[in-house]
Design goal:
The chain is mainly alpha-helical and 49 residues long. It has helices at residues 2-5, 17-48.
Length: 49
Amino acid sequence: MITITTVGYGDIAPVTPRARLIDAFIVTPVRIAVWLMFLGTAYQLIIRR
């Protein structure tokens, strides 16, 4: 997850396995959903012009 969402240098502070699971199964899908909404909105605006 770190490599995908940042420059890949690793965590600043140690992260527990539970926090990594939350990031993998909750936070990352939310990030992807927000990006898809952004891309869909941008695509609609381009089509309307």
